[in-house]
Amino acid sequence: MTTHSTVPDEDGALRSDRGWTRRRTLVAGAWSVPVIAAAVALPQASASVAITVDLLGAVDDAQTYPFSAAGDTAPLIFQVAGSGPIPADGTAELVNAGGIASWDESVLLQGALASAAIDTDGTLILPIVALAAGTFPVLVHVGPVTRTFVITLVQA
To answer: Which pLDDT tens digit goes with each residue over 3-49?
Structure first.
């Protein structure tokens, strides 16, 4: 025959030395909340894909392009990579580049944004036309990622 002892708890109520009490249930529930929250967040985190965008030849996200005369074309070549599928295209915008550079006519424009397909090897090419020497930022958007690169045009 098994005997169970009962002991008064801090509220003066009698409780068994075995089994679930209201307090044990609350403590177990409180400890399980972080575990459940982490388990719910993990599928969403694993579904997101890290995408990187780099400007070929850039040093510290900056690149200098020499040009001979106004109207010369300089190809901005970006390398896009990811731990999963990458978007099919990317967009970019020239910031404060008026009088210094413009998008080449081969680039599809959507307002101020230039758009181009990303090759199967992850290459995104967006050529610009040099108008004068100067420096300006280019914002590149690929999926949820936006990167800023500084372009300097120098007359050779």
So the answer is: 555 556 666 655 555 566 666 655 555 555 554 554 445 444 444 56
Question: Residue 144, CB half-sphere, CA atoms under 13 Å: how many?
Answer: 6
Give me the amino acid identity at 19: G
Q: pTM of the entire structure?
A: 0.68
Neighbours of 3 (CB within 10 A): 4
Number of C-alpha atoms within 13 angstroms, CB side, residue 120? 0
